[in-house]
Amino acid sequence: MSQKNILVVEDEKDIQELVRYNLSREGYRVTCAGSGEEALRTVKSLLPDLVVLDLMLPGVDGLEVCRQMKREPATAHIPVIMLTAKGDESDIVTGLEIGADDYVTKPFNLKVFITRIRAVLRRSKHEAPQQEEVLQFPELVIHPGRREVLVEDKPVSLTYTEFGILKYLATRPGWVFTRNQIVEAVRGDGYSVTERSVDFQVVGLRKKLAVAAGRIETVRGVGYRLKESLNE
Questions:
Q1: What residues contact residue 144 under an 8 Å CB cut-off, 6+ apart?
Q2: What is the per-residue burial (b if ≥16 Cβ within 10 Å, else e) of 142-175?
Q3: Residue 201 Cα distances to 16, 17, 35, 122, 159, angstroms
Q4: Which is nearest to 189 in space by CA: 110, 84, 113, 101?
Q5: What is the pLDDT along the chain (232 residues), one digit of tens a residue?
Q6: Which of 112, 110, 146, 113 has its CA nearest to residue 129?
Q7: Pair type for strands 5-9 and 29-33
Q8: Do 5-125 and 135-226 share a fold?
Q9: Closest-CA residue to 150 (of 168, 131, 137)
Q10: Which of 47, 143, 179, 204 could form a disulfide with 148 if both were Cys (CB 3.0 to 4.6 A apart)?
Q11: Where does 135-226 sit in CATH, by number?
C-alpha cells in the first residue's frame, strides 16, 4: 500500500516534532509547516492526503487556512483535522462548518489521535474528487465538482454544510431523507452534529436560495426532500 502524505501545520516545535515522529513511525510521509502562509504554499505544491492543522498560528490562522483550502477546487477535497489548545466550541463549530473533517484538542492521546487520522483517511479514500453530474432544475443548477450553486444564473455562496445538504437532497429529487441520514451523508459517522443542527442549516439554506427555497420541503415527523417541481 502506498504511503500517505500528511502535512502537519504547527508552530510549536515540540508538538510539531512529536506529531512528525509518531506519524513517521506509523509509515506516513510527513511534511511540516510552521505558519499559515507556509501551509497554504505547501498544500498547493504538495497536495497532501491529509492536513493536521493547528488553529492558533502566526499570521494567517488555521481557520483561514482551512477556509482558503476549501475554496480552491484543487485542494477542497483534502481532509483536514484541526488541532487546537483552546477547545473553544465556537472555533470547533466554525472549523467543521467551513469544511474541516475532525478536531483534536490539546493535550491529546497519541493512540487516539492516530486512530482518528486513519479513520479520516479511510473515509476520504471513498470521497476522491471525480466528475459528478451537474444537477439541474429550471431555476437551480448545482455543480458538485466546482461546489457551485446558481439560482436563476446567479451564484449563491453556501457554507460547506449547506452545500452538502443541498447536493444530497438534489441527487434524488422527491425522495424523503431523515435528519440522521442527512447528518451521516454530509459529515460521515462519528461527528458531534445533531439532528437539530440540520434544521438550523436548512433555515439558512432556504434564505440563500431565494426563489428556489420552496424546493426544500419539510416532511413533518420525518425529515426533508427536494421537490421535483416548485408547483408540488
A1: 132, 133, 134, 135, 167
A2: bebeebbbebeeeebebbbbbbbbbbbbbbeeee
A3: 35, 39, 32, 27, 9
A4: 101
A5: 458 999 999 999 999 999 999 999 999 999 999 999 999 999 999 999 999 999 989 889 999 999 899 888 788 889 999 988 765 677 777 777 788 888 888 888 899 899 989 988 887 665 544 556 889 999 999 998 777 899 999 999 887 788 889 999 999 999 999 988 888 787 654 444 567 778 888 998 999 999 999 999 999 888 999 998 877 6
A6: 146
A7: parallel
A8: no
A9: 137
A10: 143
A11: 1.10.10.10
What is the pTM assigned to this prediction? 0.63
Distance CA 210, CA 157 (A): 12
Boundaries of every domain in the chain? 5-125, 135-226
Cα 123 to Cα 79, 85, 120, 212, 223: the distances in Å are 9, 25, 5, 32, 25
Answer yes or no: are the C-beta atoms of 52 and 81 closer than 8 Å. Answer: yes
**4, 73, 137, 150, 163 from 131: Cα distances, Å:** 23, 12, 19, 18, 17
What cell numbers appear for 211 in the block? 426563489
Query: What CATH architecture is 5-125?
Result: 3-Layer(aba) Sandwich (3.40)
